[in-house]
Amino acid sequence: MVSLPLSLCGALLGLVLWKQSIGLYALIGITMLMGLVTKNAILLVEYALLQMRDGASQRVAITRAGETRMQPILMTTIAMIAGMLPIALGIGAGSEARAPMAISVIGGLITSTLFTLVVVPVVFTYIDDFQSFLKRKFWKGNDPDGNSSSLAKLDQIDPLSKDRPAMRN
C-alpha cells in the first residue's frame, strides 16, 4: 500500500508536465495504475515472505525478492508504457481525448516502479521488525519446546494448505 501514494504523485506530475487536465480518462488511468502498482508490491512482499518461511533471514529474503521479482516488474512496466505511448502521443483517431489516461498511467508507472523496488522493501523491513518486537514483548508464555505457545501455533498455520482444518458455521 505504500507504493500507491507514490504512484499517484507520479501520475499527477505526468499530467502537470504534459499540461493535461484531470478528467474522467485520467481517473480511469489512475485506477488502472493502482491495480498494477498493488500487484507489483504484492509480488515483492509475497516472495520475501515465502523466503522467510523457508528459513532465510529477513535481509536475505528481501534481497532475493528484489533480485528475483525485479525482472517481471520491469517487464510489465515497460510493456504497459509501450502500450500506452501511442495513446499519450495522440497517435490515432480520438486519442487526444484518451491522452490523459495514458499520461497518468505512464507517469505513475515510472515513479512507482522505481519506488516499489526501493521503498517497499524498506517499509517491509520496518513492519517485520515491529511485528517481531510485538511478539517478543507480549508473547512471553513458553511451552515445553521453548516456543511461544499460541504464537508458535499461529506461525505454523498455512492458509493455503489443503490439510488445514475445515471452517464450520
Plain-language structure description:
This protein has 169 residues and is mainly α. The chain has one domain: Multidrug efflux transporter AcrB transmembrane domain (Multidrug efflux transporter AcrB transmembrane fold, Up-down Bundle). Helix content is 75%, strand content 0%. The chain has helices spanning 3-17, 24-53, 58-89, 95-116, 119-138, 149-156. The protein is elongated and about 65 Å long. The chain starts with a helix and ends in a 13-residue tail after the last helix.
Secondary structure: elements and pairs:
Elements: H1 3-17, H2 24-53, H3 58-89, H4 95-116, H5 119-138, H6 149-156
Helix pairs in contact: 1-2, 1-4, 2-3, 2-4, 3-4, 3-5
Assembly type = single chain
Element-by-element helix/strand order: HHHHHH
Number of domains: 1
* Biggest sheet record: none
What's the β-strand tally?
0
- Structural class by secondary-structure content: mainly alpha
Summarize the structure.
By secondary structure, the chain is mostly helical.
Key traits:
6 helices, mainly alpha, Multidrug efflux transporter AcrB transmembrane fold, 169 residues
